[in-house]
Write a structure and sequence with these properties.
By secondary structure, chain A is an alpha+beta fold. In chain A, about 65% of the residues lie in helices and about 5% in strands. Chain A is built from 27 helices and 13 strands. Chain A has a four-stranded antiparallel beta sheet. In chain A, a hairpin with a 2-residue loop joins strand 7 and strand 8. Chain B has about 400 residues and is of the alpha+beta class. Chain B is built from ten helices and 20 strands. Chain B is elongated, with a radius of gyration of 25 Å. The chains are: A alpha+beta (about 675), B alpha+beta (about 400). Chains A and B meet through helix 1, helix 2, helix 23 and helix 24 of A and strand 1 and strand 4 of B. Bound molecules: adenosine-5'-triphosphate (ATP) and magnesium ion. The site of adenosine-5'-triphosphate has 12 residues of chain B, from strand 2 and helix 2. Magnesium ion binds next to helix 2 of chain B.
Chain lengths: ~675, ~400
């Protein structure tokens, strides 16, 4: 009966006219989403499709004819397939090859001699047939007549196809698929040990009144500052062929599972400790009071209150550790010896054998456990957050002499282990010739004399880490802002969230390899990035995107939801609000993101090992390469350079945070 | 399809009473909402709302929690787009405009003050980028601080102010750019009772001084009654009644409104003609309700409308509703007495009445005493018990 009534009955919902802010925000969000698609989704897609691309010699495609001594062709033409059936030269498996595969035509003629006057003819039975004559690519169904000497240089080329051949090869090659079992085994054992040790440590920190707690907290996060290969190097010095403590292993070799597990415990310890400490911190003191009033024994309280309260933290820690170990490449590379692990297999297939298709297959295999661990961790994390918001009275421990000293002793042991491995590296880097000449010298720091890129790689690393921190923080924070504060556009926002979570599930090796497939493709317009500093920065930002994104989102969620509404009502653009209010208020989170990105960019090996070029060698990769070349002491020295740089960066971060907070966050104090 | 325009301050029977308010001064329409609906999925939060608000008017949206007040306010601001319907502000169709292109200032329940900016910077936030010089901005900020009564707090941060002070800063920020429309979403609900009463007057004063058209959301009826020129009572996504505070209070058009605002006695009865009601064993005169004879109704009378008389008072008994009762219980509530009266034989349960301290003294009322009360016919309302929306009057 009125316009409004008609509108209701027409049932077409209104659409908001977009304001300038909406358009800018959606546009910007789309740009970052496109960035994530290009830097993550497309490379992964390229890698997936690579794992399904097969190359096979199709012998039915080629036909030969052989002349008599006089050069006259009387014999009937015969296909390579028929020849192969007759002579059994190549089995079906032999015919599977890779993109570079070449099969000499002469292999089908056992009595071939390049000096013979006999002539050969070759032609394709269809246009798909391709072969090389010398370096000339030839195809087609025309007969090509060649002398014996020319025929010697005829190579059949494989046909590209799609299929599961690579996978069937993988699963029928024991040296390859045994790695699955090895990787799962190592990850499982390391997880059990790390989580147990870290739980004890976190428990002591939160439930005892032992002295030196801040020192222990600091020591526990040391491993974050070094590349995962560093503990491997330390273990080589301690237990390797010339190790001081070699006898302790009772004849077992450190090169292999033992070394990998010990090193993995070292580098995953801080991650587990932090998660479990958080979980223990949110336990409710009232439950303990109830337990005490019920006269439950300490032991019973532990099992009925502590463990259930921390269970999500424990599960989450377990999956994080599992994921870190199974995807780590540096450590097993240094100390794994002959013990094959999935991440190292990727490296071996790609760098060692140039078999990119098989590298892609191993990557896909490695994705499976990583994705499962990721999914479980996310699921558990949601629960934990729910617990956190319902938190109540925090628990305050009571002093107890015996218990406190027990805790202290335990933590001291762990601290000795953590500091010890780092100290061994430092010591080894400073002595002349371990273990024969222990006098001190700086000659292991003369990196320019070794393989690996010299001091330049160290400066490159710093440059890369700085770019990663600056660009990464900017991209991540603004991206998180858009996805949190854009109104409407729900489908776009959930797609963005998905893209932002994905990097956490992608192992570094897989990402690096995917980058090769995507960016090193001559037909890709982004090909120019390949081999530059830019691609290293892009790869590293992407690799560590998720945790940074979650940090930013958490900080943004604590902002009043109505700030944007107020700014809009005052006709102020969102970017003014962003720069004047949102960023300053979120400054602690912004600084946290940048130090996280910096430290990880300094230590990462796995993704960038495929992507550096002679002008962009990196310190962490130099550690790997020097170790590979037998220059273990310089490798340790470079590892320690990374450690000091990161420690320095953390210090600067701490000072900056305090200084900046004191100046810009005066409003926090009452 | 039935849809009423809720426009008038002067609804049919409310004329005499509403005349006291200023709603009879004809003012131009400033905001016109027409056929507005809003759905969240399958849930309809607003159902076909139509409403006009006049220039310079102070309107309160009042209703129980979840009735859609905030949703309506946010639709006016453009913060959450309605599913259908139009909104016109100062003659301009703003139905689908983004908030930044509308003309309003807003104060939220949380105040949403920028924590890292000083009070001055908070208030100046909307004044920048509009061609004003620094000096002009500083002058305007000082003026606004003066206006909200916090002249020397400009250098402090929001966290250093009390809740009431923060609220006033939020208000100053919202009116800094002199918007044509001021929107307030429960601006006082985070404050304690004393501050709240004090600020009611301040806001109302300020609004009168500025003459800005204002919409305030509240679920506190006292707040609405004391501040609003007109009240929009909402329930379940529809408007129950629009009117001046006195109209809403004295002539609630639905049982919901009568029940939601103020106190009521509700007694089951039947219609006994156009303006009389049949109770358990007597027939009483009431306002003209126009309901068919025999139809079940809920009779409503407010406690303060029950008029006390000495026992045996019979003056004009043929046309006045007089009942003899005994006082079962009395409770002193400071400025008046609340009594529970037994024996009125109107329905089950006692009749609640409020007597002035004066009357109690004059008639010597005490627990157990017998007395006569009058239920004035013009204060005895009736609402059909079949549908909630058929009204008396
Ligand atoms: N984003 C949303 N999604 C789904 N339902 C919503 C949403 N926002 C509001 N609602 C629902 O719409 C109804 C009206 O909400 P609204 O916030 O307008 O109520 P209100 O009258 O302001 O209540 P209160 O006095 O509690 O603030 C409620 O039932 C609410 O649950
Ligand atoms: Mg509300």
């Amino acid at each position: 009966m009125t316009r409004a009534a008609e509108r209701v009955s027409s049932g077409r919902p209104l659409r908001a006219r977009l304001g300038r802010d909406d358009i800018i925000m959606r546009g910007y969000m789309t740009v970052i989403a496109v960035y994530l698609v290009v830097a993550l989704a497309l490379p992964l897609w390229a890698m997936m499709s690579k794992s399904f691309s097969t190359y096979r010699f199709d012998l039915r495609l080629y036909e030969f004819q052989v002349s008599d001594e006089a050069g006259a062709f009387h014999a009937p033409p015969v296909t390579a397939h028929e020849l192969n059936q007759r002579l059994r030269i190549a089995s079906s498996a032999d015919l599977a090859t890779n993109a570079d595969g070449r099969l000499p035509a002469t292999s089908f003629f056992p009595d071939f001699s390049f000096r013979s006057p006999v002539k050969y003819r070759i032609r394709g039975t269809s246009d798909d047939a391709v072969y090389l004559v010398g370096s000339d690519r030839t195809s087609g169904t025309q007969w090509v007549e060649l002398s014996s000497n020319e025929f010697r240089r005829v190579m059949l080329r494989p046909v590209a196809g799609r299929g599961l051949d690579n996978y069937s090869t993988y699963f029928s090659t024991p040296s390859l698929f045994h790695s699955i079992e090895n990787s799962l085994f190592i990850a499982f054992v390391s997880t059990v040990i790390t989580v147990t040790l870290a739980f004890g440590f976190a428990y002591a920190l939160s439930r005892s009144c032992m002295p030196l707690k801040p020192v222990f907290r600091l020591v526990a996060v040391l491993p974050i500052l070094v590349p995962s290969l560093l503990p491997g190097i330390a273990l080589v010095y301690l237990f390797g062929n010339q190790g001081m403590l070699k006898e302790l292993l009772l004849g077992h070799s450190i090169y292999g599972p033992i070394g990998i597990v010990i090193g993995s415990v070292f580098f995953t310890f801080p991650h587990a400790m932090i998660i479990i400490t958080t979980a223990l911190a949110i336990s409710d003191a009232r439950l303990y009071e109830a337990a005490v009033s019920l006269k439950a024994s300490k032991w019973k309280t532990f099992w009925t209150v502590t463990i259930p309260g921390a269970r999500y933290g424990l599960i989450s820690a377990a999956f994080v550790v599992f994921n870190l170990v199974i995807t780590d490449f540096g450590l097993p590379k240094v100390i794994g010896g002959q013990y094959n692990m999935l991440a190292v297999d990727i490296y071996k297939q790609v760098i060692g054998q140039q078999n990119f298709e098989m590298g892609a297959v191993v990557s896909v295999v490695l994705l499976v456990p990583a994705l499962i661990a990721f999914a479980v961790d996310r699921f558990v994390n949601k629960r934990q957050v729910a617990l956190l918001s319902a938190r109540s009275v925090p628990y305050a421990p009571q002093p107890s002499r015996r218990f406190d000293w027990l805790c202290f002793g335990y933590c001291a042991l762990i601290a000795v282990f953590l500091v010890g491995l780092v100290a061994v590296c430092q010591f080894a880097a400073l002595v002349k010739f371990w273990p024969y000449d222990l006098s001190l010298s700086l000659r292991n720091y003369a990196f320019d004399l070794m393989d690996g890129g010299g001091w330049d790689s160290y400066y490159n690393s710093i440059e890369m880490a700085l770019w990663t921190a600056v660009i990464g923080t900017f991209v991540v924070f603004t991206g998180a802002y858009m996805v949190e504060k854009t109104k409407g556009f729900d489908s776009g926002r959930s797609l963005f969230q998905l893209l932002a979570m994905l990097p956490m599930a992608i192992p570094g090796m897989v990402l690096g390899l995917a980058y090769i497939f995507f960016f090193n493709n001559p037909s890709n317009p982004l090909n120019a990035l390949y081999g530059t500093m830019a691609i290293l920065v892009i790869c590293t930002v992407t690799h560590f995107y998720t945790v940074s994104h979650l940090t930013a989102v958490t900080a943004l969620k604590q902002m009043d939801r109505e700030f944007e509404s107020v700014a809009a009502s005052l006709k102020q653009p969102f970017y003014k609000l962003l720069s004047r209010v949102t960023v300053p208020v979120c400054l602690p989170a912004v600084l946290d993101i940048s130090i996280y990105l910096f430290v990880n960019a300094m230590t990462t090996v796995s993704a960038v090992v495929f992507l550096y070029a002679p002008t962009t060698t990196l310190a962490s990769v130099a550690v790997l390469n020097m170790d590979d070349a037998g220059d273990i002491a310089p490798a340790a020295a470079m590892g320690m350079m990374i450690f000091y740089t990161n420690a320095g960066a953390r210090l600067v971060h701490a000072i900056l945070s305090r200084g900046v907070l004191a100046r810009t966050q005066a409003w926090r104090a009452r | 399809m039935h849809r009423h325009e809720h426009t008038a301050g002067r609804s049919a029977a409310g004329g005499a009473l509403a005349a006291a308010a200023r709603a009879d001064v004809p003012r131009p329409v400033y905001l016109r909402i027409d056929g507005l609906s809003k759905s969240f999925g399958s849930f309809q939060a607003l159902k076909d709302i139509s409403l006009t608000i006049h220039d310079g008017e102070f309107v309160c949206f009042l209703g129980p929690s979840g009735c859609g007040k905030t949703t309506l306010l946010r639709a006016i601001a453009g913060l959450d787009l309605q599913t259908s319907g139009t909104i016109e502000q100062a003659g301009r169709d703003i139905s689908t405009l983004p908030p930044a292109e509308r003309d309003f200032g807003i104060v939220f329940q949380s105040y949403a003050l920028f924590p890292n900016l000083t009070i001055e910077r908070n208030i100046a936030f909307g004044l920048e980028n509009a061609g004003r010089t620094r000096v002009e901005i500083a002058t305007r900020v000082a003026e606004l601080l003066e206006l909200v009564g916090l002249p020397d707090q400009g250098k402090k941060y929001p966290a250093h102010l009390s809740g009431g002070q923060q609220q006033r800063i939020a208000l100053a920020r919202a009116i800094a750019t002199a918007p044509g429309l001021l929107l307030l979403d429960e601006p006082l609900s985070a404050l304690d009772a004393r501050v709240r009463v004090h600020l009611r007057h301040e806001i109302k004063e300020l609004q009168r001084k500025l003459g800005v058209t204002t919409v305030m959301v509240t679920h506190d009826q006292e707040e609405a009654l004391s501040m609003a020129d007109r009240i929009v009572v909402m329930n379940h996504g529809v408007i129950e009644q629009v009117g001046t505070p006195t109209t809403i209070y004295r002539e609630p058009s639905t049982l919901f409104v009568a029940d939601f605002i103020g106190e009521t006695n509700q007694i089951a009865a039947r219609s006994a003609g156009a303006s009389s009601l049949a109770f358990a064993d007597k027939v009483l005169g009431s306002v003209a309700h126009g309901l068919a004879e025999g139809q079940p109704v809920t009779a409503v009378i407010r406690p303060e409308d029950v008029t006390p008389h000495a026992l045996g008072y019979r003056e004009g008994a043929d046309r006045r509703n007089l009942c003899d009762v005994t006082i079962a219980e009395m409770e002193f509530l400071g400025s008046f007495w609340r009594a529970r009266l037994a024996g009125a034989r109107l329905g089950q349960g006692p009749l609640v009445a409020d007597f002035s301290v004066n009357a109690v003294r004059r008639l010597d009322l005490h627990e157990g005493a017998a007395m006569t009360v009058e239920l004035p016919a013009e204060r005895l309302l009736a609402y059909s018990r079949n549908g909630a929306d058929d009204a008396s009057g």
